[in-house]
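Example record

The entry below shows one chain as it appears in the dataset: sequence first, then structure tokens.
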Amino acid sequence: MKILKSFLLAFTISLVFSGIGFADGFNSIYSTDGSSVWAVGNDGLIFYSNTGGATWGMRSQGTEDLNSVFILNQSIWIVGDNGSYFFSLNSGMDWNNANLGSQDLNEIYFIDENNGWIVGESGRILQSTDGGANWVPYNSNLNNDLNSIKMTSTTSGVICGSDGKVLIYNGTDWNEITTPTTVDLLSVDKKSNTIICTAEDGFIIKSTDNGASWTTIDYRSLSKSEVYSVQMFDENTFYSCGGGGFIRKSDDGGASFTFQANPMMANLVDIHFSDANNGWAVSSLNNAILRTTDGGVNWKFPTGTTISYTWSQKQSASGNIGNGFCYHPFNKNGLFIAMGKKVFRSFDKGNTWQQVSTISYGSRAHTFFVSPADSNYWIASMDESSGRVVRSTNYGQTWTVTWGPGALTNYGMPMMLDWNDPDRVYLNPDNSKLLKSTDFGLTWESIGTKVFRSPDNITIPYNNPDIIFSGDGVTGQPPGELFKTTNGGLNWTLENSVSGSEIPFTVVSNIDTTLSFHTCWSSGGIWRTNDLWENKTQVATTTSAWAADIAKDDPTAFAYGVYGSSVYISTDRGETFKQTSVGSSPEAGMYFFDKANLLSQKGGGVYKLNITYSVITNSSVISTSVPEDFSVSQNYPNPFNPVTKFKVSIPANSNLKVIVFDVLGRQLEVLVDKLMPAGTHEITFDGGSYQSGVYFCKFITDGFSETRKMMLLK
């Protein structure tokens, strides 16, 4: 490639920070030593830590969204939207900035302290050979957005971008190579000749010959959730994150994955490890930074992070019974639901809905499906004692009856589409053998000899069409029973019998296809299996449990609702649960679109979970005007419960240590212990874990110390 031009950066210090009005969300996080960690995000937001992410300070750098940060020794480089560029040569004490054009800059990467690269919008590529002081633009001959870059040496690297573009560097030129996809590629990493690129539609592509050939690894997410970020340790071991908060690890080059439980229920857009144990992951939607110190066995939020759960109604309806949700087979953000006689459609993961059909038979839909082969074909089971199966071939404009009238369950879901075959549907009427259709509900035939009492649900595991589960039971007449067939319904075995009278929901993960849960009504709680019910464990004893689902992009996330207002949420495969209240009853259906998007079908309509993360930072820069003397304000408020703040003015770059003591002089907590730039800082103390009483906060800096008395009243 030809060098178009070079330019010298005009360095100007631009350090105006505000502790008020920061946007939420990070786009990049980086650390080289596991101790000093920097995260950058929206509207100039920056978090920094000298404790490996156990505690955080906050500052801002400009007002543009910051997209990437890279650290090497004491040097820090940051790029963002509209050509914004910042760098520090002394661990963030002083900063220089420049504008590198009008295009958004998406990622920066340095091979050593001299040689660095930037990629960005509209094919933008820049190179520096002097530590970021000068940048040379390259002509990529592309108008595609370039999203990620990884260099393995000064003569070897790879870039990925929109429309499936991949460029390989040979030491002189960037050459475009052919890939098996045209969707946007979001992140890239490279070890030796092995390259992995993540994609927006729930898969990754991998090359083991430096891009000469590729294989596609499907993440098998029904929601086709974005795989935002990847980090490789070697040719076989890598981590990836994305979707609604999933984290995966592979030790065999992507042939298999372990799914790492973590508490984030929002998109994860970047994952970074400084070594085999210490890692972090960030979301662009909140400021809660995940941290692990054991290679992802445990992921935690910073101490003091609080999570609040609320629900909001997205679509009102009546006549809700059974589970009317069905995903849109040709729109990754699309979803349908049948409530009463009405069919609604959403194209934004359930945030807004539009009625698209009225079913002309019956009054209450128990189940509803759209054909994965042709979205014009719909099928629904209607009503109970005079139940029917109705079918549409024209997107719900007209309907015909293909089965019934006959007796169907009063409350559950008597019909199920086999996702392994778009034409195969099962129906389980009351006091009847199992029925099967191989033409999407047009005709039906009975299977086997077993007669069921009043089945509440039918479930077929993904990638295993010969296995079928049926939850059988009559309201008020226990036991509820779970049956299993391994030969398509010819023979059945009893897998679980519970004290309640019904097993209303059995769900199987579409990703971890041996993981399943079932609910029990009115007693019996929640049961889990990791081997399709050969073995089972009761994980909760909640009464009147009803609807349930597993997140479509992360099998560690599971939720269930009761025949009341409560919904319980787990992000660790059902080991622990958080109780929430929807505010409407009863629970009829549930759809875990992805880990960040949980929908509940209640008596009043469709409700969606909203989660708010609140993060306490121990310090933030609120002014860079250099004060004349060191000073500490009295904490405010005082008395306080449970959070209070101090303002500390530092006349020169200094080491600052802030310690909290009780009245007996015992050290309770170190709030800050690091080098701080000159300016005015805000220090936060959270006394939530302490009892009411008097406490002291001591501030120690070079040649000066001061103590403040504070009162905690609960």
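Notes for this example: Residues 309-614 form a domain with the Methylamine Dehydrogenase; Chain H fold (CATH 2.130.10.10). The chain has a mean pLDDT of 93.
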